[in-house]
Design goal:
By secondary structure, this protein is an alpha+beta fold. It has three helices and two strands. It has one domain.
Amino acid sequence: MRRTPYTVIIHFGGRDLKASEGYWAKFRDVYDPSFRVELRRSLATQQGRQRGSVVHRFFVDNELSWGDATDIAVWTLASPKDQPAKVVFVADLKKPTDHREIE
């Protein structure tokens, strides 16, 4: 078929998780509506460019800094009160829990 498979890196905009830190950029707030809109727009743009090609894999915002095991939680809680990820996280923390023993 004489086509070479390759990877595509998808970069897109949207609201950042305000208190996040990263080597290249801040972490995206995946709970903000702009995340889905911007990602879909970027993917649609790439899809039009890739017709007839063999795309092996897509990378979304290549080389994100995830921090250590608790950094995203800390960044979320340190963000402003209107940060969508923080609103969801705090609501989840306030939910009643089932205190049954975990087997």
